[in-house]
Amino acid sequence: MVFTYIVGSVKKIRGVEGSTPWLFDFSDHYSLFDWGKMPDELPFKGNSLAFMSLAIYDYLQDSKSWDLLDKLPKHFESKPLIHSCLDWLNKNGLKTHLKGAWNNKGPIDLKDKKEWDRLEVKDPLYLDFNPFKVQKPNWNDDLSFWDYSGFENPKLKGMIPLEVVFRFGLPEGSSFRKRLKNKPYLEELFQSFQEPYFQEFKDDLHQGLYDNKLWDFPIIEFSTKWEPEDRFISYQEAQKISGLSDGEWATFIEWNRLVAIQLRSFFQKMNLVLWDGKCEWGMNDEEGPFIGQRSFVLIDSLGPDELRLTYEGAPLSKENLRVFYRKTKWANYVSVAKEESRSKGVKDWKDYFYKSKFPVSPEPPPLAEEQKILFSMIYQSLSNIICEKVYKKKPFPEAMTLDKLVKAISSLETEREGEAL
Predict the structure, then answer these.
(1) For residue 170, what is the DSSP state?
(2) Rounded CA gap, 63 and 352, in Å?
(3) How far is it, in rounded angstroms, from Cα 325 to Cα 331?
(4) How far apart are CA 416 and CA 421, in angstroms?
(5) What confidence tens digit (pLDDT) does each residue in 165-196 have?
(6) Angle, alpha carbons 31-37-40 (nearest 5°)
(7) How far apart are CA 124 and CA 106, in angstroms?
(8) Could you report the per-residue pLDDT of 191-211, keeping only the tens digit for each?
(9) Could you tell me if 382 and 48 are in contact, meaning their C-beta atoms sit under 8 angstroms apart?
(10) Full-prediction pTM beyond 0.85?
(11) Alpha helices in 168-293 (DSSP H)
(12) Using CA atoms, how far apart are residues 98 and 106, in angstroms rounded to an integer?
C-alpha cells in the first residue's frame, strides 16, 4: 500500500512500507523562522530543489572531486586527522543516502544526457534515497526540557539528531551574531585550534571586527534537530546526544569541515560565495574512515534552503525571503513568542504565539505576486547553473541568468522601499 509520510514542512516521503523505493517529494512551499509551511507557493521550487540536491550529492560522491589539498586553509597543515579524512575521501568519495531520481515514468539517470529528453519540468521529480531510523527526544513536563537520556548510547544507529552548521563568514541576518558575545561558547568552538592565529581571530570575532566579512576556514556549530525551535548547543552536549564515540566525534568534526570546504570550492567555480550552511547525517555499520569507526552518511538535501549564497554581493538563497519577512510585525512577534516561551519553559512556542494576544495576526503575511515570481526564479536559476556544472544540462530553459536575476531583485526591493516611504 502506497503511503505518504510528512517530513518537516515542505517535503514528503513517498513509498511502500517494507520495500523500495523511498522517494523525497519536494513541494513548492517554503518555511521560515521554525514556523513551518508558509502561506504561499513558489512555482517550480520543489523541482528546482530536487535537481540541484541530486547534482550536489552526485558531485560529493565522486572521489575525483575531492582533490582539495591545495584548497585547505594553511592553518590546517599541522592537523593530521583532517588530512587522513581527506585521503579517505580522495579514494572513496562522500557517502550519501541519495540513490538517484524518479519521475512519473520511473527511475531516470540524470548523468545520462539522453535521459534528459524524458524530463518534463512541470512534472514532479522525486529523489530516491536510503531511509534512516529516526529517534526523537521526549518533552519532560515536570522539568520543562527536552529529554535526550535515550540517546546516550555510543552505538546509537540511524539519523544523528543534530544539525551541523558551518560558517565562513558573518553576513547580515546570521544567528551567529547573537552568540558572539558568549565568550565561553566561542572558546569551545576554537578549543581544537591552539595556534596564535586562531586565538587572535577569536578575539576579533568576539569584538565584532568580522561584521559582514568572510574568513578562510569553517567554524562548526551544532543545533538540535527535533525541537520546535533550533537550539544551539555545546560540543559536549552535542556529542552526548549524537551516539558517537570519542574517536567518531573527532572524525565527525573534521568530516564536516572538509564537506564545508568542498562545497565552498564547488560554488566558487560558479562565481557564487558560500557564507554558511547546514548538513544532516546518519550512521551505518559499514566501516568508516578509521578502524573501529562506523560510516558517516550525508542525508536529507542541500540547496538554497540550507546554504547561504551570494552572487556579486547579492543574496541568492532563502535569505531573500527572510529579509522580506524580518521587516514585518509578524516576524517581530515570532521572536517575542520564542523568547517568552523559553523563559517560561513552554514546550511549543508556536502554540504560545497563537494563544497570546499579540497586536498582530498569528498568520504570516502573504507575498506579492511579483515577489513569488522572483523568489521562485532564485531556485530555478541556481538549479540551472548547478546542473550545468555537474550534468552539462539546464532543467529550466526559461529561467533568468544570475546577472539578470540580481538586477531584477534589486529593482523590486527599491520599488517596494519607495512604496513604503
Answers:
(1) -
(2) 48
(3) 6
(4) 9
(5) 999 999 998 999 999 999 999 999 998 887 88
(6) 90
(7) 11
(8) 888 788 888 999 999 998 999
(9) yes
(10) yes
(11) 176-179, 183-189, 196-206, 235-242, 246-268
(12) 16
